[in-house]
């Protein structure tokens, strides 16, 4: 018992357990209790010292950035920064880059948006590292669709994190970073399409769409990026519903097409896997991936609801400036959707190998094409974002000259 207690103390005091030795047989029994008590008190003293150091972290951050300005109300920032029903928590413009990076630890109306996708990207990275221990992402071409899904998931969460963290710098950077965010979203759409078409597709559906599925998915991915960027560019010259249609409709079309193999599989599963349902009722799982596919669809539809509806802040204006925004719930549901999707694709990669090797070829030539196409799609989407950023730059320059 005492040795276990010492080991716990050694963990918190950042010392190796081997350096804490209980009394040995060479110590006389009359001295042993006092010696052990001295060791315990010494470890407790070190523990309190380390806890004091942890408590000093906020003060250290304050000393690093002693002059960080406070947040502003919506009436104190330009109109293009304002979000409906969010009345406070806006960061001031035209500060140094150091301020916006350090605002990661500041309370403002984008804090939760930053941290939800930052933590989500860390979860995906941990999952990536775990899978890399058992999946040969280098030599097994059939693992490349799963690799594309993991990379695109990391990309969209990282781009979203950067956008929400740094977009308050200025109007120009606000547009640029959210254009980057839309590039990440488009890449995730492509990664989802590849994983679903490669692993989740049923043979009859593959026969119907095999020649058009990936070309259409690629086109919709680029169209979604263009629609989102253009909608953002015309942010305040169009009505809200018009802008939302321009952004949501291409993305909705891309999602419906990219996930159609999963929809088809979910619809057919109750009839074509009746034996699996009976087995599941008796405690035996026939298709372990199907529940994760159902989960990813449910969580995505939930995230889409909160993306298109500013709830609950519309019901409580000014009371969700820090926590409780619909966009924050959108982030959370989308992260859970992505994790379910990765798990489902991994289970399909393990359990459906005879099927997808039959559909896509034993050597995985199709996966090689999709990997190259993924890089090409990235280039096209980045070019769209750069083109729109230049349009924004020209627009802002003309506006400044006219003043």
From TrEMBL:
The keyword NADP does not apply. GO terms for molecular function: metal ion binding; nuclear steroid receptor activity; steroid binding. It is found in: Membrane. Zn(2+) binds at residues 164, 327, 331. One of its GO terms (cellular component) is plasma membrane. Residues 1-17 form the signal peptide. The chain crosses the membrane at residues 143-167, 179-200, 212-233, 329-347, 367-389. It comes from the Eukaryota. InterPro entries: AdipoR/HlyIII-related (IPR004254). Its main location: membrane. Belongs to the ADIPOR family. This is Progestin and adipoQ receptor family member VII, a. It comes from Oncorhynchus mykiss.
